[in-house]
Task: structure prediction
Amino acid sequence: MTDPVATHVQDGVGEPDALERLWTPYRMAYIRGESKPEDPSEEQCPFCRIPGLDDADGLVVHRGELAFVVLNLYPYSAGHLMVCPYRHVAEYVDTTDAEAVEMAELTKTALRVLRSVSGAPGFNIGMNQGVAGGAGIAAHLHQHVVPRWVGDANFMPIIGRTKTLPELLGDTRDLLARAWPA
Result:
């Protein structure tokens, strides 16, 4: 595919900016908000609907008293979990002390379980708050727990437009749920 920026510069319009470009048009679905709820209400929120499903259908790994652990439907890597309060709350500062404590405990357990079943040597843990902060579903707080391996973010997603996930989400959920301490 011809680089439209380079062609545009060759046509004498604009100045080159010395940036290399890797085109990732598949990201437009995320940028356009496709598959997101139409409104931020509890009725449209997937994180509010998931607890009403059985664990296998909802990809729920563990249910706590105030929060639950669920597999990400669009994982960055195998075993990508999210820790979500049951309550429809958007900001971490708006969680109750009890919710924050339980989310922290579930995150620690998620790290231990993921490391024990997958041998992941590293993790990314974080919350994206607000649309500007990168939250795909900004109306309901969720903390990502992403297992990482050296070289896992290689050329495949960028150039090959392919993500390599070694097992089905349902199988990953079953494995993690069985390993979760009682």
In short: The first strand starts at residue 60 and ends at 63. The two ends are 53 Å apart (CA to CA). The chain has a mean pLDDT of 81. The chain has one domain: 4-179.
